[in-house]
Design a protein that fits this description.
alpha+beta, 8 strands
């Protein structure tokens, strides 16, 4: 089932103030814990992908959707917030406070640190 994107704009302050916002969504909250190496709300596999000498090989070995420097992620947003722009994120699905997006791998941690975002993770596989 595919859900459409809802447009909106929320004014940010702080380091993300120059970035605008574009889409909202909702789904299940993440179950993984944030990476321990800096406190960003990002799944550790995504940190490992960004640090990998060969991200394509790492993604392939770990079942992560990666293509041409971009990774598919699920972004959980703070209530009433929208997906920030300025990180190269291209939303593909949205529901409530959750957005699935394609993001340049080198922007994942910055996106996770944005005040509109609570967590960034890889998509879950559907149960068979």
């Amino acid at each position: 089932m595919t859900t459409g994107l809802a447009a909106g704009c929320v004014q940010s302050s702080g380091p993300a103030a120059e970035r605008s916002t574009a889409a909202t969504a909702d789904a299940t909250p993440p179950t993984a814990t944030p990476a321990a190496d800096g406190g960003d709300a990002v799944e550790s596999r995504l940190v490992d992908l960004a640090n990998a000498a060969d991200p394509a090989a790492f993604a392939d070995a770990h079942g992560i959707a990666y293509d041409d420097g971009r990774v598919t992620v699920v972004v959980t947003l703070r209530e009433g917030r929208t997906l920030p722009t300025g990180y190269g994120a291209a939303a593909t699905l949205a529901a409530g406070d959750t957005v699935e997006a394609s993001v340049p791998v080198d922007e994942v941690r910055a996106l996770a640190a944005d005040e509109n975002v609570t967590y960034v993770r890889t998509p879950r596989e559907p149960n068979a």
